[in-house]
Amino acid sequence: MNRLNIAFVTPLNPIPNGLSDYSEALLPVLAEHADITIYSECGTPANPQIAGQFEVRPVRQLLRHHSEHDLRLYQIGNSADHAAAFEMLRCLPGIVVLHEPFLHTGYRYMPTLRPYQRELLYELGALAPEVQARWAAETDRVALQAAPLIRRLIDSSLGVIVHSRAARQLILRTSSPRAQQLPIAVISQPMPLPPHVEPHTARSDFGWPADALLIGVPGTIDPTKEPALTLRAFAELSQQRPEARLIFMGDWPLDYGLSDLVRELNLSERVEFMGRVEPLARLERTMAACDIIINLRRPTIGETSGTALRALAMGRALVVRDIGWFSEIPAAGSVKISATAEVAELAQALHTLTTQPELRQKLGAAARAYIQTECDVAQVAQQYMTFLQIVYARFDGPIGLG
Fold first, then answer.
1. Residue 364: exposure state from Cβ atoms within 10 A (0-12, 13-18, ≥19)
2. pTM > 0.85: yes or no
3. Is residue 267 located within the same domain as residue 312?
4. For 335, which of 110, 142, 319, 347 is 20 to 30 Å away at the CA?
5. Is position 270 within any domain?
6. Residue 400 maps to a domain
7. What domain range is 85 assigned to?
8. What are the Cα distances from residue 389, in Å, to 54, 71, 288?
9. Could you give the angle at which helices 18-30 and 306-313 cross, rounded to 10 degrees?
């Protein structure tokens, strides 16, 4: 195989984006197989290994240097952190790693609404002004999935990498006729397997009792992650398990009525909101201190949860909904509540886990085995390169301007 020269377009730390961590884990291993130049809006990378090993250029410089590279590889998620990449994709197509097949948030929160309006037009065609206004004001993710704003990406990309069969199906169901011919690879998200840590050994770092029963909810708090449902289920559990504690570890951009709900449920002494936990090593230590991790989504937009994978890698008992990518997690390594479950079903799942430590250990062991088999970074990098070589072979040479 030819050793490819890759332009790798991605956020990097200090940009606080999950894809920054993703790319920083993948890049050193991928560089064993390809020559890589990074294009990012991060400025100087916060990760010294990345800063020392790679040349990092602003994304706009890809226009000047595109002929140096055999392929362009874009890491794309549903965030305005990808604004420069969204614009670059319009003139310089490449292979896209689509972490979420839904880009409304990414386009809607760019500096101006013009790109969002442009993508609505591309996806839906000409709209009456009042219809366009309704789309621009819509916040219901279920309604927005009728036009996920990925058609241009599908129409112009050379190939797409996703992390789940669920995400692949969402692409195939889009309005783009090219979706059926587009090369699509399903490659697991890489996740390193850390040394196993017993929960009680990590608790002194945070002042939590060694004998407490800790339930963690990592990640940014927003309604799609169902914090109110979690609080109500925990309130039911705490009547039987007063030693239980619920720890939210993530940004809290809006209150969403949660402070009032905590007081209403009389949980002020049993629930803690830590805010954003940084750096990543501290977040991992916080998760390691927990007996159980909850990672709910409703609705899902085809995303893969790095937080859920991290909990599995740590061998923690993980509670998820049986929906989207989460359905693909082996049943032996997680507890799944139904797609329509409400408080009673979640409370019962938590009660079962809190009363059966041997079940938590069994789930944790199976979870770590799954991560070791499916998410090994060296294996993921090799799968990337196989797909990149397949796509590159479809063309005669470096792919230039679109």
1. buried
2. yes
3. yes
4. 142
5. yes
6. no
7. 5-190+376-393
8. 22, 10, 39
9. 60
Instruction: Check residue 136 and give its pLDDT.
Output: 78
Amino acid at 26: L
Whether 290 is in a domain gets the answer: yes
Strand residues in 60-139 grouped as ranges (E): 71-76, 95-98
CA 185 to chain centre: 17
pLDDT for residue 128: 85
Residue 159 sits in the same domain as residue 244: no
Q: pLDDT at position 400, please?
A: 52
> Are 275 and 285 members of one domain?
yes
- Greatest Cα pair distance, the chain, in angstroms, is 67
Q: If we measure between CA atoms, which residue out of 17, 2, 1, 61 comes closest to residue 37?
A: 61
pLDDT of residue 138: 84
- The answer to whether 200 and 177 have CB atoms below 8 angstroms apart is no
Same domain, residue pair 171 and 225: no
Q: What is the DSSP string of 333-366?
A: G-EEE-TT--HHHHHHHHHHHHH-HHHHHHHHHH
Render pLDDT for 247-306 as a digit per residue (tens, 0 to 9): 999 988 788 999 999 999 999 999 999 999 988 889 999 999 999 999 999 999 889 999
Q: Enumerate residue ranges in the chain where pLDDT < 70.
A: 1, 396-402
* Same domain membership, residue 368 and residue 382: no
Are 304 and 208 in the same domain? yes
R_g (Cα) of the chain, nearest Å: 22
Task: Give Cβ neighbours of residue 221 (< 8 Å, ≥ 6 apart).
Answer: 227, 248, 250, 251, 252, 253, 256, 258, 273
Segment 30-78, tens digit of pLDDT: 999 999 999 999 999 999 999 999 999 999 999 999 999 999 999 999 9
State the residue for tokens 């050994």. 201
Q: What number of residues does the chain have?
A: 402
Number of C-beta neighbours around residue 96 at 10 A: 25
Is the C-alpha dihedral spanning 75, 77, 83, 89 positive or negative?
positive
56/172 Cα distance (integer angstroms): 34
**Bridge partners (DSSP) listed for residue 249:** 218
CA 300 – CA 326 distance, rounded (Å) = 9
